[in-house]
Amino acid sequence: TGTGGITVSSRRVSRVADAQQLLEEAFDSWLAGPCGVLSFVCSVLLSRTLATVREDMDDPSMPLLGRFGHCSQELVNLMLVGEATSNVFDGTRFLGDDPSSGLLLKGVIGDRVGVPPIGFLSGFE
Q: Do residues 74 and 66 lie in contact, with contact meaning Cβ atoms separated by under 8 Å?
């Protein structure tokens, strides 16, 4: 804390209503400030847990922010459906002819996350 410092705090909640109330109460202090978007992204990442976000991704070494500060597809999907999958297609697919040696590509699994309220959305939309 201090001039230019950042204070990080966390709270555990077990109900969606409690999380919504915390967001509403803290809106002016952290979402509306100069680091509001960054605070929100950090909150979403920590809510999912960093380990789980990495498991969601095809390549966990890839950054969530791309060139020119654009969100990666993983970050877009995390914000929209709650999972940081690398692709927008339904389910999973193997790249290559042989599933035993091909690369597993992870898409949105509707049975797990439900039907998203927003259709196909890439980082360029």
A: no
Q: Helix 73-81 to helix 36-48 angle, to the nearest 10 degrees? A: 80
- Examine the pLDDT at 47 and tell me if it is beyond 60: yes
Q: How far apart are CA 102 and CA 96, in angstroms?
A: 5
Collapsed DSSP state (helix, strand, coil) of residue 51: helix
**Could you give the CA distance from residue 112 to residue 116 in angstroms, rounded to a whole number?**
11
Name the pTM for this structure.
Answer: 0.73
Q: Which of 108, 106, 111 is closest to 59 using CA atoms?
A: 106
Delimit the domains of the chain by residue range.
1-48, 50-125
For position 85, what pLDDT does the model report?
93
5 pLDDT more than 80: no
**Which amino acid is present at 44?**
V
Q: Measured between alpha carbons, how far is 119 from 6 in angstroms, rounded to an integer?
A: 36
Instruction: Give CB contacts under 8 A, 24+ apart, made by 60-63.
Output: 62/86
